[in-house]
Specification:
Helix 8 links the parallel strand 9 and strand 10. Strands 1-2-3 form a three-stranded parallel sheet. The chain has two domains: 107 residues, 3-Layer(aba) Sandwich (Rossmann fold), CATH 3.40.50; 174 residues, HUPs (Rossmann fold, 3-Layer(aba) Sandwich), CATH 3.40.50. The chain has 290 residues and is an alpha/beta fold. The longest helix has 17 residues. Helices cover 37% and strands 16% of the residues. It binds glutamic acid. The site of glutamic acid (GLU) has 7 residues, from loops. InterPro entries: aa-tRNA-synth_I_CS, Glu/Gln-tRNA-synth, Glu/Gln-tRNA-synth_Ib_cat-dom, GluQ/Sye, Rossmann-like_a/b/a_fold. Pfam families: tRNA-synt_1c. GO terms for molecular function: ATP binding; glutamate-tRNA ligase activity. This is Glutamyl-Q tRNA(Asp) ligase.
Length: 290
């Protein structure tokens, strides 16, 4: 049997913190325990936020922690054609439409809708897409695209869910509310998610499912902050005819006030901790893997 494949997939938009160390070490340990392979994937599709110095720091910090990974490393920015092909497949199924509202226009539409009561929010707390681009006539849509107006390509969630009902996933870890085992997927909670933008011809959801399948990842170990996103990932996997990995969501490392760590919170950054004299074994201990 082929060895199981794991991956750690950070975005180079800041320096790694204790939460990344925990996730990277969990993947590394799982790969070692199972005789598996560990891949490192650089999720750098957002050209406005990703920087080469953060990518270099990822390699340095992970190596310092004692993690090793297979090369070559897959950098998502080098594989846009693969994501484009997946997007074309979804388009051919009639599940994708362009939406032309800017972020500011969307915010305005949401506040307008909220005059009639609360507008639904996705599991991350962002309002669902409030626009009506889905119902534009084909000629109107073509006219707007041809005019050069920027747009986002969105998934027609209702139509997508009709094609893939009864979705579940196998949770080996634990969701934020203790979910484990066979978990029902609820992609509809996300509304018409963005699959690509004019300036970034893919999205997190799309590229992550394409890459996990292409790289043969069998067990996805990542933080609970991505637990609910798994619903969208399962939907895309089924629509694209991709295999089903297992998921192991892990608890999040929090700061002294119980807040989720962010790349800007300096005190929990791996570089700051290293400069303060903490050793890799000390980091393991700090995250509870000692
Ligand atoms: N690139 C994502 C992040 O840095 C993680 C993606 C994933 O593990 O699915 O949060």
């Amino acid at each position: 049997m082929a060895p199981p494949v794991f991956r750690f997939a950070p975005s180079p938009n800041g320096y790694l913190h204790l939460g990344h160390a925990y996730s990277g070490l969990m993947n590394f340990d799982r790969a070692r325990e199972t005789g598996g392979r560990l891949l490192l994937r650089i999720e750098d599709i957002d050209a406005t936020r990703c920087r080469p110095e953060f990518e270099a720091a990822i390699y340095e910090d992970l190596a310092w922690l004692g993690i090793d990974w297979e090369t070559p490393v897959r950098r998502q920015s080098e594989h846009l054609a693969a994501y484009r092909a997946a997007l074309d497949k979804l388009s051919a199924l009639g599940l994708v439409y362009p939406a032309f509202e800017s972020r500011a226009e969307i915010a305005k539409l949401v506040s307008l809708r909220e005059t009639n009561g609360p507008w639904p929010r996705d599991p991350d707390g962002a309002p669902l897409y409030p626009g009506e681009a889905k119902s534009l006539s084909a000629p109107e849509r073509d006219r707007l695209v041809a005019s050069g107006m920027p747009y986002a390509l969105r998934l027609d969630m209702m139509a997508a869910c009709q094609r893939a009902t009864g979705l579940t996933w196998n949770e080996l870890g634990e969701g934020p509310d203790g979910e484990r085992g066979t978990v029902p997927a609820r992609p509809e909670a996300w509304g018409d998610v963005i699959l690509a933008r004019k300036e970034t011809p893919t999205s997190y959801h799309l590229s992550v499912v394409v890459d996990d399948a292409l790289q043969g990842v069998g067990e996805i170990v990542r933080g609970q902050d991505l637990f609910h996103a798994t619903s969208v990932h399962r939907l895309l996997q089924v629509l694209l005819g991709l295999g089903e990995p297992a998921y192991r969501h892990h608890r999040l490392i929090r700061d002294g006030e119980g807040r989720k760590l962010s790349k800007s919170s300096r005190s929990t950054g791996l570089r700051a901790l290293r400069a303060a004299g903490i050793t890799p074994a000390g980091i393991r201990q700090l995250v509870g893997l000692g």
